[in-house]
Design a protein that fits this description.
heterodimer; A: 376 residues; Uridine Diphospho-n-acetylenolpyruvylglucosamine Reductase, domain 3; Alpha-Beta Plaits; 8-stranded antiparallel beta sheet; B: 489 residues; alpha+beta; Uridine Diphospho-n-acetylenolpyruvylglucosamine Reductase, domain 2; 5-stranded antiparallel beta sheet; 34% helix; 19% strand; binds flavin-adenine dinucleotide
Amino acid sequence: MTNITQNDITTALQDQVKQAISSNTPLSIQAGNSKRFYGHSIDENTNAKPLDLSSHTGIINYDPTELCATVQAGTKLSELEALLAQNNQILAFEPPHYPSGTNNQDTATIGGAIATGIAGPRRAYTGSVRDAILGVKMINGTGEIANFGGEVMKNVAGYDLSRMMVRSQGTLGVILSVSVRVIPQPEQNMTLAFDASQTEALSYFQELRKTNLPITATAWLNDQGLIRVSASEQVLKSCKSKIKGDEITNGGDFWQGLRDHTHEFFNKNRPLWRFSLPPASSSVIPLDDAQLLEWDGAQRWVHSNTPANIIQDIAKPHNGYATLFNSNSRIETHNNLSNMDIFPALEPALLTLHQSLKSQMDPQGIFNPNRIYRGL
Amino acid sequence: MTIEAATRNKLIFQLAEVLPENFLLTTKEELRPYECDGLAAYKRLPVAVALPDSIEQVQQIVKICSQLQVPVVARGAGTGLSAGALPHEGGIVLGLSRFNKIVSIDSENLTAVVQPGVRNLAISEAASPYGLYYAPDPSSQLACSIGGNVAENSGGVHSLKYGQTVHNVMQVKIVTIDGELITLGSETLDTPGYDLLALITGSEGMLGIIVEIVVKLLPKAESVKVLMASFDSIEDAGHAVAAIIADGIIPAGLELMDKAAIHAAEDFVHANYPLDVAAILLCELDGDDIQLAEQVEKVDTLLKEKKAVAVEIADSPEEQARLWAGRKAAFSAAGRISADYYCMDGTIPRKQIAYVLKRITELSEKYGLRVVNVFHAGDGNLHPLILYDAGIEGELETTEKFGGDILELCVEVGGTITGEHGVGYEKIDQMCVQFNDAELTQFFAVKRAFDADSLLNPGKAIPTLHRCAELGGMHVHNGELPHPELPRF
Ligand SMILES: Cc1cc2nc3c(=O)[nH]c(=O)nc-3n(C[C@H](O)[C@H](O)[C@H](O)COP(=O)(O)OP(=O)(O)OC[C@H]3O[C@@H](n4cnc5c(N)ncnc54)[C@H](O)[C@@H]3O)c2cc1C
């Protein structure tokens, strides 16, 4: 029953794409809309039609001993994670859900998580979104359905198009379903907190990076360092003597707040900037605005009204970059933010390569035009 | 497709202008060592071999070839097992062996900047004083180059826990066919734009020439244990693999050998393997002491529950090396008991291991050819070795047919034709079994974006739509493998 329905939905989606190709109408691919704020708005300058994947749902295949789940792209992250939890497994990249609306609705889907490639607190320790991708089924730029990768752990047949779909934000095709590698859920989690300046915390995280301790998250904010450790009870006990800080009781809520940006740090009406830096970078962001650090310092958040060019120039000399993650006030500041690039500019030769890849894979330019960069 | 004399002359003349004398090889004797890679069944002489030592030279070479429309085949150490570096008779081989420097090791960011010709093992050796290592460990690691590893997305015994090349590379610099130098990836944990780093990894020299790589380094594990479990049936061993994974344990390595492999290896290296069992599983666990002790206990119990008739736990590095020795020598051991063998590289879902091994046994009876099974059971990556004798009329053809059946069987149960050796020239026909026209067409589109005239390694990895014929494999004649000094996994 479900299968037949899902096949019908797949066919309907494919028809819509074919229709869009023949009428040269751009499509705005969406499902849960939980990450709609991320990137340029598609509807701004085009007459794009929505392509809705939110009913393209369901678990296609999941066998815990294969460490792989294959799911329709519109499946809610919460649903997938609940199923994995029943089998003591998790997604290694701890994807954010970004609940929104007055009653904090959790609408995030796996397709959106893959397309944006945004990962949560665990990323620096157990891998990125693309690291976990094993296969993708997509509708391509000629309206055909194509499969890349698969469900097995190792696969080097053909170019790795499934991993390339991650972070392409729907600009290269419609993700219909994905196969993701999952990992065992650690028996327990423990969060330790210690007082430290940013510099002290960074150098301590750096020290810990050279150990094999089962750390699965770190953060620094408000002159406090926090470390999540995940393992068996006995191992956690031994970690207490190896890692500094006192155990806090509400660790689970704290990390979920960071993951989903529901932590009060993110409750500000200023543009939210994300810095991505080599992990061992010291305190390099000379802004007065409060900072929140994650991933041992490789990911840093700042709400700031500082002009974009100044912010982006802070990151560059450190071999990093800054992204306008969420303008948070799109309407009011529309005029000064909409003309700038949300994502850091690409080197000219690299941009040319992006453009030719886009025009090869989406010859009519119908998939989420301009979502990441203008012209893509 | 050979080269016209006029083009050849222009090519050599122009290359000689940008390269020092001994960086350009053109005589038959000089070209001979480049006629094949680790899969010696396929041989061709290129027009010339260029051995540059700077990125500028690579850019100049590529520009010349691009202008004259001459194919370019990149080559690392030539240990590939799918004829990926097989020369093009109308083109040049661009050898990266002179790019052999470890540029820097960053013990704070845990990365190393290396040139593509650096040997895989040399990175871990250089990182060792900092307590660090580079995780992917193909058994050719003494010889194979990191550039080749990126081009093939190579794996190793420890890929189960630590991933393949794609999981352990941060950034690469490539020279495109137009001679542009482009950086893909970054020193941070993600990069703006498309993930072209993932795309270039495993692209088999078809999208660009890799000229510099930033690899990720890991702190060395505190301690290691190796368990060896024996089973009376291969199905039991297969079930034990699934049980370990189901219990939430990801071993650093989990390898299976069948009876034929055990006997061949034991005769060769005397690892003290049990000879009266149907299969053994080698399981390596690592971590800090407390964690490790817990895992060893769990795995030991699980193995016994899953009908292991004996479990041996190796604590000391010497004992561990002894247990691994037989596994590492298994390919060479197979070479001793048969005139020739043919190595497959399919990957299947773990739950299909017992079924696929049974079908392989049936096929073995059908074709009248023996098979040795020794493989990465943890990630379902099979390496069946078909034993044959090329001296017997028609036996090679039978073997190829048998091998083709095995690869198709892998696809049939939801797997893939290659887990780590790549498609190259060898498995190009099996690509037609795995991908349909729409998918192949998508690959061509990607290729066009990078290399519109198809000058980079043409005729490899992605078949044209009308090409779907014979089947291939890794051929070994009279146990004479290229690189016989290397352990084989
Ligand atoms: C004894 C033995 C054991 C092996 N064990 C394993 C194993 O355990 N796991 C595994 O995965 N493989 C294994 N292999 C296969 C082989 O070693 C790997 O594929 C390796 O990565 C090839 O590296 P290379 O430098 O020899 O590349 P080559 O053989 O020279 O080239 C391989 C491919 O990469 C391309 N290439 C090489 N360098 C570059 C570059 N700089 N830029 C662009 N393209 C490039 C070539 O064009 C070719 O297509 C084994 C081989 C042997 C002989």
